[in-house]
Design a protein that fits this description.
Layout (H helix, E strand, L loop, with lengths): L7 H21 L3 H11 L4 H25 L5 H24 L6 H21 L11 H13 L4 H11 L4 H27 L6 H23 L2 H24 L1
Helix pairs in contact: 1-2, 1-9, 2-3, 3-8, 3-9, 4-6, 4-8, 5-7, 5-10, 6-7, 7-8
C-alpha cells in the first residue's frame, strides 16, 4: 500500500461500508467478511487478495469487538475455547487452500445449506420463543467455520453463529463468544495469507474498511446486550438468508 496516494474522499465510501458492516457483525455475530468481500470483488479484486485484505482488517476490528463483548459480559469462556482452537486450525488450512487452489466450486453448496439454516432460524423466531439449550456440536463447527471463512472469503459468523443458535444456544452469549474467538481466527488467517501472498493485498480500500470497522466495533457489543433474544434470532435469520441468497445469485448468474 502506497500511503503517498492517500485520498480521504476516495476511501470515505470504504470507511462507511466498514462502519456499517462492523455494527451488524458486532450485534449479530456475522456479515463483516461477507459484505466487505462482496464489495472488494465487485471492484475486481481477486478472491484470494480480497479475503487476505479483509482478514487483515478483521484482525483489528475483532480485537476491539472482542474486548467490548468481554466488558459487556457477552462471552461464554468455555464455549470460546471449544470454538477458538479448531477455528484457528481450520482457518490456517483454508487460507493455504485458497492461496494455492480455487475453492469456489464448493461455495454454492455451502450457500444452499446456509440459506436453509437462515430460513429455519426465521421460523423459530417467528413461531415461538427460543428454547435455550447447551449446544452439543461445537468443535466441528469451529473447524469447518474457520476453513470456510478463509477459503470462501467469509463464513465464520454465518456458519458458527447460525448453527449454535439452531442448537438452542443463548443469542447474546453466542454472538459475543463467536466474535471474540474470531480475533484469533483472523490473526491466523492473515498471517497465513501474508506468507503466501505478501502484503500486496492491503490496499487503500482495506485501510478504509479498517478505519470504519474499528470506529464501529464497540457499538455492536452494546446492541447485542440490549436487543431481546427473540429479536436477535430473527435478525440473524434475516441476515443469513439474504446474504446466502445473494451469494447464490452471484455464483450462478
Amino acid at each position: 500500500m502506497d500511503l503517498s496516494s492517500f485520498d480521504l474522499i476516495h476511501i470515505l465510501p470504504f470507511i462507511g461500508v466498514g462502519f456499517a458492516a462492523q455494527v451488524v457483525d458486532g450485534a449479530l455475530g456475522m456479515a463483516f467478511g461477507v459484505i466487505s468481500n462482496t464489495l472488494l470483488m465487485s471492484l475486481g479484486v481477486p478472491p484470494a487478495a480480497a479475503s487476505a485484505g479483509v482478514h487483515s482488517v478483521e484482525t483489528f476490528t475483532t480485537a476491539v469487538s472482542g474486548i467490548s463483548h468481554a466488558v459487556h459480559r457477552n462471552v461464554d469462556w468455555k464455549l470460546f475455547l471449544r470454538l477458538m482452537i479448531p477455528g484457528v486450525i481450520g482457518g490456517a488450512l483454508g487460507a493455504y487452500v485458497l492461496s494455492n487452489i480455487d475453492a469456489a466450486v464448493v461455495k454454492p453448496f455451502i450457500l444452499v445449506y446456509l440459506t436453509g439454516i437462515g430460513i429455519y432460524l426465521l421460523l423459530r423466531a417467528l413461531r415461538h420463543r427460543p428454547n435455550v439449550r447447551e449446544p452439543k456440536i461445537v468443535e466441528p463447527l469451529g473447524l469447518i467455520g474457520g476453513f470456510l471463512d478463509a477459503a470462501g472469503g467469509g463464513g465464520w459468523g454465518p456458519v458458527v453463529t447460525s448453527n449454535l443458535l439452531a442448537q438452542g444456544a443463548t443469542p447474546r452469549l453466542t454472538i459475543g463468544t463467536v466474535n471474540t474467538a474470531e480475533f484469533f481466527l483472523t490473526a491466523t488467517i492473515s498471517a497465513t495469507f501474508i506468507t503466501q501472498l505478501g502484503w500486496g493485498a492491503f490496499t487503500m480500500a482495506t485501510l478504509g474498511l479498517l478505519i470504519g470497522g474499528v470506529l464501529a466495533a464497540p457499538f455492536g457489543a452494546m446492541l447485542a446486550k440490549r436487543i431481546p433474544p427473540q429479536r436477535l434470532l430473527l435478525m440473524v435469520g434475516i441476515i443469513v438468508t439474504l446474504t446466502s441468497l445473494w451469494g447464490l445469485y452471484n455464483a450462478f448468474k
